[in-house]
Amino acid sequence: MKQTMVLLAACATLVFCGCGSATSPKTQNEVGRVERCADGDCFHIETALPIDYTENMDWVLRYDDNDVEELRQRALTEEKDCDVLFFGSSSIRLWKTLAEDMAPLKVVNRGYGGAMMRDVHYNYHTVLADYNPSAFVFYCDNDLGGFGRDLHPTELFDLYRLLVERLQQDYPERPIFILSIKFNNNRIAKLEQHRLFNAIMADYAAHTEGVTFVDVNTPILNADGSINDAMFENDRLHVNREGYRIWASVLRPMLLETLGK
Fold first, then answer.
1. pLDDT on residue 21
2. Among 40, 55, 111, 118, which is most buried by a count of CB atoms within 10 Å?
């Protein structure tokens, strides 16, 4: 029998602004709660929004014996208290100068190669283990990688939103920093989907307390907005040392300010 994984989201909040007919505050119905804003110009609609995603477990577990196992082993000996826990895909894992770039912040790198949002959720407890960070930084772009298993940007957003909700439930009041997807020539066919996803996430973060969207994409582009291969390794996918230096120059001040360092 084929094993499957199913993800179920918690509730979501949809916000509609503009003019409309009056609605009584906190109207209860079968789909949730409708609450009118104090100024009367917008409405908050809270409703259950399930996300069902079924995936073949053989594929979800493809890194279980190597990269994910390494995370398990490191969790046995690493110091658990830190300022910032970085996690996500290989763009995090390959950040070899992370500790140097983020100093004096104490950081831990829990990224693993090839991670997609679907298996990040499956490996959630393995990745985070019993670490105790003051903040989180996350990056993952492989669900829009052109592998034939790609999600639509709005589907990917749902899984990002679910991750935020899990983190906020398990780690209350810990700020979450979401790094933008980087445009790159290796996946140039996905550029417009990357652009759409970044726009969706930026808007979501702007309206979600405790979540910051960090644009690490624009600073590594050419002045005319085109992709600058000088910022990338030979694979034209992963940023090189200069790319990470620029990422750090954007992200580190935000972390220092947020954490009061």
1. 33
2. 111
